[in-house]
Input
Amino acid sequence: MKLVNIHIPLLTAALFLLGNQATKAQETWSLQQCIDTAWVHNRSLQMEKNNIAMADEKHREVKANLIPKVNAQADYRYFFELPYQLMPMSIFGGPEGQYKAVQFGVPHNIGANVNVGIPLYDPQLYGGISATKEAKVVSQLQYRKTAEQVYFDVSNLYYNAQIMQHQLAFIDSNLTNAAALLKNVQLIHSQKMITGTEVSKVELQLAQLKTDRQTLASKQQNVLNLLKLSIGIPLGREMMIEKSPLEKPVLEYTQKSTVEMDMVHAKSRLLNIELSSLKRSRIPSVSVFGSYGVNGFGYDKTPNDFLDFYTVGLAGLKLSVPIFNGTVTTRKINQKKLELKNNQLMTESLTDRTAIQLANAQEQKLTANSTMQNYTAQSELAQSVYQQTLLQHKHGTAGLTEVLLADNELRKTQQNYLNALIDYLKADLELKQISGNISINDK
Output
C-alpha cells in the first residue's frame, strides 16, 4: 500500500495547479495594466482632472480682466410729462434771487452708445492672476496625490488577490493530498488494521479544507470586485491576475520630494502671493474709459414734428485711491501672516514625520524580507518532514496522527510564508510612497 504525496514546491505548485486557468490571455491582467487602466477610468482621477481644467479656466478668467471691455447700450424714453428745471427769473428781466419752474426737452429721447474700459494698472488684478496660477499648481499636485493613492490602493488589492490565488493553489494541493490520504486510510480500515476514528479524522480534515477553499474563493472574488471598481471597469467583466512569483529583490529607493511636501511649498507660495496682493491693495488703480454714440430727440406735434440725432463722444482717465477702509486690510494682512507661520510649522512637522516614516518603512521592509526568507526555509523543512512522515507511515513506524500533524505544520508554514510575502510587498509599497518614488501618469 503506497501513499501518494502531491505536495510540490511552494510557488511552483501555485503556477502548476492554476495554469489551466490561463487559457484566455486577454483576460489576464498584470499589475501595470491595472494601474494604466486606473489612470484613464478611475472616477476620482477624472474628477481631479476636471478640477485642474477648472483651475486653468479660472486663471484665464482673471487674466481676461486685462483685456479692454467693450459694451453697447441703447435706450428709448418717452416723457409723457417733461421734467422741470428751475430758471432764475433775472434772465428774463425779473427780480434777482427768484426762480421759475420751466419744462425743457422733447417727449421722445433715443440714446445709443458704445463704451470702452481699459485697466492701466490694478495691483489686486495682477495679484489675482498670480494667485490663480499658483492655485492651478495646487490642483495639479492634488491630482498627483490622488493618483498616488489610487496606485497604492490598486497595488494593495492586486497583491491581496494574488496572495489569495496562491493560497487557493496550496489548498488545492492539500485537498488532493487529503483525498489520497483518505483513500489509503479507508483501504487500511477495510483491512481491519485501523479504527473508523482515524478515517473520520481524515474526512474531517478534508471537509475543513473544502470549507476553507470556498471561503477563500469568495474573499478573493470580493477583492477582485474592489479592484475592478478601483480601475474603473464593469463588475461583470471577467478578470484574472498573473500568477508569477511575487518575490522582489530588496531595493534602496532614492529619497525624492513627496507630493505632500510639494503641496505645502505650493501653499506657502500662494499665501505669500495673497499677502503681497493685500499689501498692494493700498496702491491706487488707474483705468481709461471712453464712450461714443448718438442722442436722438423727437417731437410729434404739428407743425414742428421732427426727429434729430446728434453725436456725442468722451474719453477719460479714472484714478481710484483707497484712503481708509476701517483697518479691514490690516486685519487681513495679520491673518495671512499667521497662516504663513502655521504653514512653516507644518513644513517642519512634515519633514520630521517623513524622516521617521522613511526609517520605519525601510526597517519594516528589511524585517519582512528576512522573515519571508526564514519562512521559505521553514516551508522546505516542513515539506521534508511531511515526506519523511509519509514514508514512515508507509513502513508502519509512524501513525496517522503524526501524518496529520506534519500536514498541518506544512500548511501552517505555507500560510506564514504567504503572510510574510504580503507584508514584504506592502512594506515595499509604503517605502516607495514615502520616498516619493511612485511613478504617476499625468496624462
About this structure: Helices lie at 10-18, 31-41, 43-63, 123-190, 196-231, 259-280, 328-394, 400-434. Residues 268 and 343 are 6 Å apart (CA to CA).
